[in-house]
Amino acid sequence: MSHSTVHPLVVKNLTKTIQGRVIIDNLSFQLERGKIYGFLGPNGAGKTTTIRLIAGLITPTKGDIYIEGHHVQKDKLKALSHIGAIVENPELYTYLTGKENLIHFARMSKTSVSEERIQQLTKFVGLEDAIHHKVKTYSLGMKQRLGIAQALLHKPSVLILDEPSNGLDPAGIRHLRDYLKDISKKENISILVSSHILQEVELMSDKVIIIQKGKYVNEINVKGQNSAELDTKVAFTVSENQLLQALKIVEKYGNAESDNKRVITGFVHYKKIPDIIFDLANDGIKVYECTPLKTSLEDQFLLLTEQKEGSL
């Protein structure tokens, strides 16, 4: 199988039941090569369990995971040789230096890791000055960066990070974001980043996969968002005395609220905007302005998960 035709990671009908409780429920998604995916869901949605399943730390009850076309259960060594993962905290030996840690993990790698690769990654994560110091002297951000270097030693094509910005200060988070963007381009790696910081995910990701209660909810294209496919926040400015009449019409198309003066904000499907304007005009309502507002990932996330919650 050539790399071009195979998705780096495919999760297919994945189910995980623990003590009779369904944690992951028939979950399917796949990653495109060289893209960064945010992995979002409310607390307890099953993000960490999914990551542990992909990393081969636990076995699924049902379903399949393929990494570069290799089945994680049936061909574990081959599959996992293409993946780098930091689940919870990077496993580091604090009594060794950064360099000694990398050498140790390089020796454990199935593929040989050159001294040049170690130097390249040290530079890449900005640890040249600290690499000969003991890891116990490192800040949290430095440990995260060393963990990423370690996860990349064997040139994986998939990198999976579970809450990588935990405990980092804003500068550390920004550095981490820059490294990940850089690396996905330079090494053509697909990255799956689970996080609860929505703004962070929005700044870093190309796409976002949302799960809830172990089920797939949606995939949102963050970069180059195709607004025609999305629910959009739209502000309609109408005559003050027609506000309530207009609100009733917009509400037929989605969630809507008014500012009690002249503006109605509706959360509606982009393709329905002309219909709304037509209905308003047809009802004799004067529409002075119609302004689509950029929908933040947070708006979409809350809308999707709340809708889901209501329909369960």
Structural description of this entry:
By secondary structure, this protein is α/β, with parallel strands linked by helices. The chain has ten helices and 14 strands. A six-stranded mixed β-sheet has the order 6-7-8-3-9-10, sandwiched between helices. The protein has a four-stranded antiparallel β-sheet with strand order 2-1-4-5.
Major sheet: arrangement of strands: 6-7-8-3-9-10
CATH structural architecture of the largest domain: 3-Layer(aba) Sandwich
Determine the CATH topology of the largest domain: Rossmann fold
How is the biggest beta sheet arranged? 6 strands, mixed
Q: Span from first to last CA?
A: 41 Å
Low-confidence stretches: none
The share of residues in helices is 25-40%
Q: Average the pLDDT over all residues and give the rounded result.
A: 86
Radius of gyration: 23 Å
Total helix count?
10
Give the number of domains. 2
Give the tally of β-strands. 14
Order of helices and strands: EEEHEEHEHHHEHEHEEEHEEHEH
Structural class: alpha/beta
- CATH level-4 homologous superfamily of the largest domain: P-loop containing nucleotide triphosphate hydrolases
What percent strand?
Answer: 25-35%
Shape designation: elongated
CATH class of the largest domain: Alpha Beta
Organism: Bacillus carboniphilus
Family: Belongs to the ABC transporter superfamily.
Protein name: ABC transporter ATP-binding protein
GO molecular function, one term: ATP binding
Give a quick rundown of the structure.
The chain has helices at 47-54, 76-80, 98-108, 115-124, 140-152, 170-186, 198-204, 243-251, 273-282, 297-311, and strands at 9-18, 21-31, 36-40, 62-67, 70-71, 83-86, 158-162, 190-194, 207-212, 215-221, 231-238, 255-258, 263-269, 287-293. With 312 residues, the protein is α/β, with parallel strands linked by helices. It folds into two domains: 9-221, P-loop containing nucleotide triphosphate hydrolases (Rossmann fold), CATH 3.40.50.300; 231-294, Alpha-Beta Plaits, CATH 3.30.70.
